[in-house]
Amino acid sequence: MSNQLSIDNVIRVTLVLGERTLAPVNTSNLAIITDEEPSPTNFGVFRSYLGPGGVGDDFGSDSTTLALANAVFNQTPNVNTGRGSLKVIPRLQDAAATSATLLSSSRVDLTALTAEDYHINVAIDGSPAADLEIGEIDTSDVESAEASLNSQAVSGAGISFSVTGELTAATIELSSDSTGETSTLEIDESSTGTDIASLLNLSGSAAGSDAGLESVKDTLLRVRDKVDFFGIVYTQKVVDVLDDIAPIVQALDKIQFVTSESEADIDGAFTDMRDAGFNQTRCLFYSEGESDALEFAAAYAGRALSINFDGINTAHTMHLKELTGITPDSGMSQTLLQNAKNKGVDVYVDFGVPKLFTSGANGFFDAVYIAIAFRLRLQVAAFNFLAGTSTKIPQTEQGMNGFKGELRDVCARFVENGSFAPGEWNQPVPFGDPEDFKENIREQGFYVFSLPVAGQAQAMREKRVAPQLSLATKSAGAIHSADIVAQIEA
């Protein structure tokens, strides 16, 4: 009897499984941050809901949390339409004392920090501002950059830097070593060397919290990497702490819906948000009372975050939309409406039928929402293109064409959902061939371009960084009003 030999001598089959990739960020997930304590002792950091029923079971039928959940799910469409859900996040009732913490208002390219004499001038725990030497930043990796920032002078002063993310898109956190309300930080942007605070997108002041009910700011910092949420509403009025939380929301690529029943806040905190450029804090006014104003914000958010960016013609504007279960603001007047419009505050008006009136003074909501969603989709698509191959993407024009193809797919999706549209580019052409640029915008609504691989600096090539990718899109916009001239001839 002969020995049977393996057919591997002739045919060899290797099974290659697909590489793991990221799912798109769900920009329809809405969080309620509540000061109310849930009844289940095992509630955890958060719970997800696809309807209000479970919220009532966990927080009670008379809770503000349930009232806001009802306002969210009463809307048609609502967050479920965008394949999102409601996340309820309770603030800790007995939180430990926390440190003063400043978060960079936007991501930082650490590789751009090439000076050798960096300083930071900061007042710590109520003491006069101290000019602290940092020196040169080692940008070979994130860990080295963090170590450089935490120089001997910085550590000795009782503060510390934390760096997360990528070298070219890092999030910077500056914290005091002390805790409690006496723990404070305040940035002074004048220093003897090259000031690094502004380059790290750090500004303003911060204070820690004493033990007890967790502050809204500390809740946001605690759950930012633990809960998948995009929009935020609150069971308490948070206007008084907007200076603390608006920079965090802006840095985390989220949108918060903040409301007030006081006209003073239109000229105060809400104007401050507009002037500071915090367009991811959406300011709403509803004069009927604090609890009704909170429900108005929840209803607005439930309707606003309903876009399914994978759909066709699903993009919308909030202007002149109707909110189920919310009555028009009986305290609204023409003077008040004009002031709200000037300050970037959205209101709910009786035009014979109840309708939202939105203002572009702090950016129209849909423009802000679409811009963040688009950036997040581009980021995930680019990551998946690089991570989804079992071999490698060559640093050649062929490889770059594949890269650009992924970005074009994202742009085309946003044309399909109605966010972008073909049109004429009316500003100077910022990159690429001017005729190709204008033709692509005119015919497709977007243009994607990369610098030639052959012209790339050798140092960047050795680091395996792609040549600069640039893209431009044409917003579809929205018609919010019109002037009509009618001529009648006898």
Provide the descriptors you would attach to this structure in a database record.
single chain; 490 residues; Immunoglobulin-like; six-stranded mixed sheet; five-stranded mixed sheet; 14 helices; globular
Spatial order of strands in the largest sheet: 2-3-1-12-13-14
How far apart are the first and last residues' alpha carbons, in Å? 112 Å
Per DSSP, the total helix count is: 14
Regions with little confidence, pLDDT below 50 for 5+ residues: none
Largest sheet: 6 strands, mixed
Helix content: 25-40%
Q: State the domain count.
A: 3
Structural class: alpha/beta
Looking at the structure, what is the overall shape? globular
Beta content comes to 15-25%
> How large is the radius of gyration?
26 Å
Count of extended strands = 18
Report the average pLDDT across residues.
94
Please give the structural blueprint.
Layout: E1 30-34, E2 47-49, H1 53-59, H2 64-73, E3 86-90, E4 101-103, E5 118-124, E6 130-135, H3 142-149, H4 152-156, E7 159-166, E8 169-176, E9 184-188, E10 194-195, E11 205-207, H5 216-223, E12 231-234, H6 242-251, E13 255-260, H7 264-267, H8 269-276, E14 281-285, H9 290-304, H10 334-343, E15 347-350, E16 354-357, H11 365-387, H12 397-416, H13 434-443, E17 446-450, H14 458-462, E18 469-473
Parallel strand pairs: 1-3, 1-12, 5-10, 12-13, 13-14
Antiparallel strand pairs: 2-3, 4-8, 5-6, 5-9, 7-8, 9-11, 15-16, 17-18
Helix pairs in contact: 2-9, 5-6, 11-12
Q: What is the structure about, briefly put?
A:
The chain is α/β, with parallel strands linked by helices and 490 residues long. It has helices at 53-59, 64-73, 142-149, 152-156, 216-223, 242-251, 264-267, 269-276, 290-304, 334-343, 365-387, 397-416, 434-443, 458-462, and strands at residues 30-34, 47-49, 86-90, 101-103, 118-124, 130-135, 159-166, 169-176, 184-188, 194-195, 205-207, 231-234, 255-260, 281-285, 347-350, 354-357, 446-450, 469-473. The protein has 14 helices and 18 strands.
